[in-house]
Write a structure and sequence with these properties.
This protein is of the alpha/beta class. Helix content is 52%, strand content 13%. The chain has helices spanning 14-25, 39-49, 65-73, 92-101, 113-124, 132-146, 160-170, 175-182, 186-200, 205-214, and strands at residues 5-10, 30-36, 53-57, 82-87, 105-108. Strands 2-1-3-4-5 form a five-stranded parallel beta sheet, with helices on both faces. Helix 4 crosses helix 6 (132-146), helix 7 (160-170) packs across helix 9 and helix 7 (160-170) crosses helix 10. The longest helix has 15 residues, at 132-146. 41% of the residues are buried. Residues 151-216 form the HTH luxR-type domain. The modification 4-aspartylphosphate is found at residue 57. InterPro entries: CheY-like_superfamily (IPR011006), NreC/VraR/RcsB-like_REC (IPR058245), Sig_transdc_resp-reg_C-effctor (IPR016032), Sig_transdc_resp-reg_receiver (IPR001789), Tscrpt_reg_LuxR_C (IPR000792), WalR-like (IPR039420). It comes from Nocardiopsis tropica.
Length: 219
């Protein structure tokens, strides 16, 4: 039997946290190993409990979800933990910063339970989770403000074809959709994605989206 996915739930709203714990704990392939209401406790518990996934709220006391995500999964962390950020539409700027901090994906708090569970399983498997319906709105809205002044498409080491694939990733397209748009196979798309991540030293598609916006590759 496969070991259950170990989940730590962090949200300062007790009712929401209790609901998340109940939904996740009812799954045969998941186990809630802990819960807390602030980012500092999330970091401490993660070190002690070793969760596979941390479901993280953004706005919390003591240490917010962005700071906690940076400590759990940011650059230089020796044993990064997979973080799934949950938020509301009016917190999208904070989600952008959380993705930059190392989060593996995000979901909206009003997402149905099935989507939450799918998100946890997706992140636990090592894949990134970006909701295509809100990716462009979410990241693009703040791209101009957070993009370095010197950012330019000429700064990237990617080939023209790889740039084309990266732009489609930033638009929220799946591998299948990219294959259809470029009239190539999905295996070829996977190869391009792997090359892009390797050349840019990126961990996953989430970081690829952030890179694309920060370097002016997407309008």
């Amino acid at each position: 039997m496969t070991a259950p996915i170990r989940v730590l739930v962090c949200d300062d709203q007790v009712l929401i946290r209790t609901g998340l714990v109940t939904i996740i704990g009812a799954q045969p392939d998941m186990e809630v190993v802990g819960e807390c209401g602030d980012g500092r406790t999330a970091v401490d518990l993660s070190g002690r409990l070793g969760p596979d996934v941390v479901v993280m709220d953004v706005r919390m006391p003591v240490l917010d979800g962005i700071g906690a995500t940076r400590l759990l999964a940011g650059a230089g962390v020796r044993a990064p933990v997979k973080v799934l950020v949950v938020t509301t539409f009016n917190l999208d700027e904070y989600v952008y910063e959380a993705l930059r901090a190392g989060a593996s994906g995000f979901l909206l708090k009003d997402a149905p339970p099935g989507q939450l569970l799918h998100g946890i399983r997706t992140v636990a498997s090592g894949a990134a989770l970006l909701d295509p319906g809100v990716t462009r709105q979410l990241v693009g809205r703040y791209a101009a403000r957070v993009r370095p002044a010197g950012g330019s498409p000429d700064d990237t080491p990617l080939t023209p074809r790889e740039l084309e694939v990266l732009r489609l990733i930033a638009d929220g397209l799946s591998n299948r959709e990219i294959a259809g748009a470029l009239v190539i196979s999905q295996e070829t798309v996977k190869t391009f994605v792997s090359r892009i991540l390797a050349k840019l030293a990126l961990r996953d598609r989430v970081q690829a989206v952030v890179y694309a916006y920060r370097h002016g590759l997407v309008a």
